[in-house]
Amino acid sequence: MKSFLAFACLASVLGLVACSSAPTLPAGFAAGQFGRVNCEDGKTFQARFQEDGSSVRVRALHGSAELARSAQGVYTGEGYRLVTEGADGLALFHHDKVQGRLCQLAR
């Protein structure tokens, strides 16, 4: 009986850990659909997140690219870096130059 309870506790803890580590989409985005993003400096871009949060497709001034999740809240690829968390809010960089910061999904 004790081993069953220990197993049940371990299974529930592992389940919580797995759920808490799943990536989340930025507020307002619907997986699989492009959303227009407006930034504080007047720049815009479009982004489409995969359902599992593994990648995001970006359309911006310098073209489009598929960015892979490289860390919590960071997507990179083809010279682009999209940051979804942090002091700059939602921010897009191209070759380390700011393409937009403090961005929000257009309503």
TrEMBL record:
PROSITE patterns: PROKAR_LIPOPROTEIN
Domain of life: Bacteria
Keywords: Signal
Residues annotated as signal peptide: 1-26
Record-given protein name: Lysozyme inhibitor
Protein's organism: Ideonella livida
Lineage: Bacteria, Pseudomonadati, Pseudomonadota, Betaproteobacteria, Burkholderiales
